[in-house]
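Hi R.,

Here's the chain you asked about this morning:
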Amino acid sequence: MRTLFALIIILLATSLATAQQLLLDINTEPVVDEPVASPKELTTVDGITYFSADTIYLEQGRELWRTDGTDVGTWLVADIAPGSESSNPKDIVDLGDGTLIFAATTALGTELWRSDGTAAGTMLVRDIAAGADSSSPSKLVAFQGKVYFFATDGVTGQELWTTDGTMSGTQLVLDTQPGSSGFVGRVIATPNTLFVASRDPVSFSQFRVQASTDGVNFTSLFVGGPAIIIDSLDFVPFGDLLYFRGGALPWISDGTVAGTYSICDCEFAQDATAAGDVVFFVASTPATGYELWVTDGSEAGTHLVEEVDPGTGNGVIITAMLPIGPGEIVFAGERPDVGRELFVADTTSVSLYADVLPGPFSSRPLPFSTVGSSFVFSTDPSGGPRELYASNGTPGQFDALLNVEGFIPSFSLNGSTLIFAADTTSEGEQLYSTDGTALGTGVVADITPEPTQSSLPSRLVQAGDLGFFFATAPATGRELYVTDGTTAGTQLVADLVPGPDSSVRAESKLVATGDKVVFMVDATPLAAPYVSDGTAAGTFPLATPSADTLISDIDVLDDVAYFFHADAAFGRQLWKSDGTIAGTGMVADISPGVNGVSAGEIVAVGDRIYFTPIVGGVGVEPWVTDGTAVGTMLLMDIGSGIASSYPEGFATFGDKVVFSASIVSVGRELWVSDGTPAGTSLAYDVFPGSTSGDPDEFTELGELLFFNARMMDERRLFVTDATFSSLTELYAWPSALSQPLVALGDRVVFLSIIGSEKGVWTTDGTVAGTTLIVAEDTVWPSAPLGRPGTNDLLAFSGFVPPYTGSFQRRLWVTDGTLAGTQLVPQDVTSPVSTPATLSRLGNQTTVTAYVPLVGTELFTLPLVDTGAYVVETVGVGCAGTGGVPAMVTSGAAADGELFTIGLEDAFPNSLSYLVVSTSVGSIAPSGCALVPDPPILLPLSTDAQGGVSIPFVPDASFIGLRVLAQWATLDPEGEFLNKASLSPGLEVVFGP
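And the predicted structure, written out as tokens:
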């Protein structure tokens, strides 16, 4: 039997690719610009420096990046504005728990975003100015576990807002200009007091300083000075005091009215910096002109340090002060005999530190930062070469580090390494680091290494034998493409918006429904759900297009797609479609009226669709539907009334669904529901009290639920059982970054990117069974990419040690063991890197990756190269006497493993056929099954229980073969041609 079955399969064998292949270079346009990464907005959090950079050659625009100061530790965090558009992250600050808060620009305008340092953990906090309008968050400052900033909601004007990193915790705090007017001021924090400088609402020409110890109740401390130049004024916190320039005079405040006063009779104060418990500033008197002053915050402790140019009364130019120790600074000062050079000062004296260009010529130094016991500065002499220097603190001694064409004043100290941006002849504007020595100074990562454009394929899904994805070409914009896994079979489906304009955005969703795909076109006047079978004629709108261009989420339940769509009668509501016009329509009118609801999340969990519309009078709450109007209901008004709980992260756990939601009394915590209002309740207040535990990454493994949650400044891994009676903490990371969890076999795998314990981890649900199996220096893993087959394998990207160059992140797989963590082989003559969006198509794996001179395009490699095999059902079968016969399998479809294909619940003692082919053919006449085409028949007989099986052991000749199989049994009550019953189909790709 094994010999006959093996012969049949080998006769059906198709040729296999032997290495990764470029499917099609869709965007062949070259880039003629010089490589310019222009790193900016450098911010260091927990040893990782985050920054924005242009990735023009990867066509990702200016996006959020991270580095640990090494090439290997530098990569893109998230393409927030997908494709070539730039999100321009700016004002990046640490919330205080390792979470980044920043402003970024997408189709929703410039709004507030958050990131935990991973692509999955990078998300919109709140669309403050609804729709495409921008709230333009700016001047972000962290204070006592929250971030304060100026923004506008379109009603109050630019005012003071606060966020704790959640949608519900993002609120207007202070309306400094009542009404629709507003003014972007300044926010300054000391350890115990938050200061806000804004335009005085009475005398608009002056600014006002207010203070608060709780971030809510503010007291007015000062009014004066020209409001229009608040941004250019010095606001310098030191200790728990604030130095600021009120008009022309220096002021001090401790956050109280009584403790706010001018500290000297000097005039025209400017350019201040703190050094320990004192502030140095520049001020002028008639006798001295501009000179260096110092203050400890009291009138008695405020005095002239020493005249740099004594006796003349002319004063000097003093700029770019840098603290190098308590009560000590270096600065650029100009004196007639030495020009503009480097000076050093303490609280009692000033002296020349270095005359870089001897004599009256000026090197124009710009002190940069301290690095260990050294400080780094650059020079910018008129007409001369610019240099970066370092000094160990000995006057007159300094060493050249780097020749600089241009200098970008954005830097961050990361331990003993200084991260900065510089423009050099050889590298362009790139990210550099230095340890204060010439040998320790160089490019961290060449973010723009090769001149090529990319099509940036995304959203690849398999429908039938075809793969569908979005890609960008200069002539057509971003449109739908189809592939059969070959170059000849990869092509544009239709240019729905003719010419270079796009019909879809990079963030548009694409889902499979049977052998077709449904996707949202958002280009006016074509905004509508579309269906495609891979041909231009078979691509058309399922509903009347509308002017509603907000991108809807989409998910599929039983081959029916659910999405939000608007029409003239009901406004935006929840719709569904089976891929036909007749099978497309509104599920329920959940918010009567022509406006409808605002689009939210849509998730298929179990046998229901959970969704989160914004409904008037209810807010954002969890809803559920079974696809019928009567079965569509509000699950629970968790936030009560118009307050919103903002549910998210819906996931299956047994016969229930779990998710996170936020209410004032407990914060964002873990909730559970059986799909009914009565069966919906709070499961755990992980972080007791009103502080949020922020649970996420809900992962089911048997009768256990694993998830991450936050406790103070740590992210922790928890497990619970179906009774929710006990909660066990398995592990804690010294960061707020969440770890993606994946169930593999009898364990959960997570790829840690935090601290000294980076690597591949597994857990069996016990503390003792939570272990690091592959250390950081072996793999350096990133977030999971997906599962290439149906066996227990997880694909991810990681570096190949020893690291040798930029953009060589490669494809890896793991089964949760050390031996099962392997680098996927590829063509060494043209290595792909930065793999992403992994998917399966037939007996191949598709992956979006980057190749120099090609760009980011879609590649394929044999599925077996990942170590994966596939055993999946296809179609629904045709019922007979006992219902639909079952196609069953056991064992592994892999070389040397026992594998069985069997039939159960068929007509007993009857002639049956195992129908085998390499492709899926047409729908059976009754419409109940997919049949292999062209078929080869293997006749067998069912036993008295209606079953039959074929056990065999595949050998090496099977590896990579893709086989479609289906059972047919003669049955007097069979639905198929009134003569037979059919099992569902089976797709098998044999693995190594």
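Helices lie at 2-11, 776-779.

Let me know if you need anything else.
M.
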